[in-house]
UniProtKB/TrEMBL annotation:
Residues 45-352 form the Glycoside hydrolase family 3 N-terminal domain. The keyword Hydrolase applies. This is beta-N-acetylhexosaminidase. Gene3D superfamilies: Glycoside hydrolase, family 3, N-terminal domain. The lineage of its organism: Bacteria, Pseudomonadati, Campylobacterota, Epsilonproteobacteria, Campylobacterales. One of its GO terms (biological process) is peptidoglycan turnover. Its EC number is 3.2.1.52. The keyword Transmembrane does not apply. It comes from Halarcobacter mediterraneus. Keywords: Glycosidase, Hydrolase. One of its GO terms (molecular function) is beta-N-acetylhexosaminidase activity. Belongs to the glycosyl hydrolase 3 family.
């Protein structure tokens, strides 16, 4: 009872502190900004740079990778023992709950696998052929494995409809469950529930739909204007209605049906008008990696941050797989945009409120 009362007071303090005053110091504002960022890093242990990012900027979270995207060399994960120590050291060093995230879909996209001492899980395509009970058992095991190492957020499930058989990044990599909305929602719901039971937040991706695309947004501009249909919104609609959507990741796809100028991640029409207002999403909107070529080839860092935050993005992801951007640079750029009145501080404060609201229940 005493513990619950303490948690209640902590929640009151965090929420009230964001609204208690109109003027914040530069240090406070930069810490609010830092809380909205998930970053990748090149290390197997808690290094000096990470320590500085946590203490100086209240870094919101990290994302771990098994290999470097370019060199294919091992990156953050060598073994179960090393991984557990890394995550424990990070959470113990921080005096607040951090997001510890990973892409663990199964199949081609699983950072923990047999090659580094963990378990291999089936792809979405393989999963779709199994019974409900088998699916439940597989995702229960996956979720428990993530929890045992200290993860609290998984960038999964993929809820893209498998609309284009020539699509490499979704279809060819077997990341979609089906082209049928009901089947996608059914299997995604099982994944989400099993993760929730084990203290793992799920991230639905890639809004407003990547399944009909022809190109890969890791490599460059992707236009789905002529292939996308409103049907691709249905998995999101259904999962939001069922109260199973806490985090939704945006796609870097351009769709002139929804926005004539900006790709999804940078679009106010898509992230606020469509997702927030029309679909009534109340959770956290997370960007896909902002270093992907679909964004970085066409926008400067300052333009990207301004557009993404103003579009409604709450958490900015910099995987440092396709680039190398320091947290200090990101925070200072956003702080400058706030000073120049290009971004309202209220956007950052609202994102902090949502992050605190969602992460606190899992930190008890």
């Amino acid at each position: 009872m005493v513990q619950l009362f303490k948690v209640f007071l902590l929640i009151l303090f965090l929420f009230s502190s964001l609204n208690a005053k109109d003027i914040y110091t530069e240090e406070e504002i930069k810490k609010f900004i830092g809380k909205t960022i998930i970053i990748g890093f090149d290390s197997f242990s808690l290094n000096t740079q990470l320590k500085e990012d946590i203490k100086k900027y209240n870094l919101g979270g990290i994302i771990l990778f098994s290999k470097d995207y370019k060199t294919k060399q091992l990156k953050n994960i060598k073994s179960p023992k090393q991984l557990k120590k890394l995550i424990n050291d990070i959470q113990n060093y921080s005096d607040y709950k951090m997001i510890i995230s990973i892409d663990q879909e199964g199949g081609k996209v699983q950072r923990l696998n047999k090659t580094n001492g963990f378990t291999n899980y089936p792809s979405a395509k393989e999963i779709s052929k199994k019974s409900k009970k088998e699916i439940q058992n597989i995702y229960s095991k996956l979720s428990k494995e993530l929890t045992s190492y200290g993860f609290n957020l998984n960038f999964a499930p993929v809820v893209d409809l498998n609309k284009n058989q020539h699509n490499y990044v979704i279809n060819k990599l077997e990341r979609a469950y089906s082209k049928d909305t009901n089947k996608v929602v059914e299997i995604a719901s099982i994944f989400i529930e099993e993760q929730k039971k084990n203290g793992i937040y799920s991230v639905l991706k890639h809004f407003p739909g990547h399944g009909s695309s022809k190109e890969d947004s890791h490599k460059g501009f992707v236009d789905i204007s002529n292939t996308w249909s409103e049907e691709e919104l249905l998995p999101y609609k259904e999962l939001i209605k069922k109260n199973k959507a806490d985090f939704i990741m945006t796609a870097h796809v351009f769709n002139k049906q929804l926005d004539k100028i900006y790709p999804g991640t940078l679009s106010y029409n898509i992230n606020t008008k469509l997702l927030r207002k029309k679909l009534k999403f109340k959770g956290l909107i997370v960007s896909d990696d902002l270093q992907m070529k679909a964004i970085s080839n066409h926008y400067t860092l300052k333009q990207t941050l301004k557009l993404a935050i103003n579009s409604g993005i709450n958490i900015l992801v910099f995987g440092n797989q396709l680039g190398n951007t320091k947290l200090e640079t990101i925070v200072n750029t956003i702080f400058q945009l706030i000073q120049e009145k290009e971004i309202p501080l209220s956007k950052i404060l609202e994102s902090n409120r949502l992050i605190n609201k969602f992460l606190l229940p899992y930190s008890i």
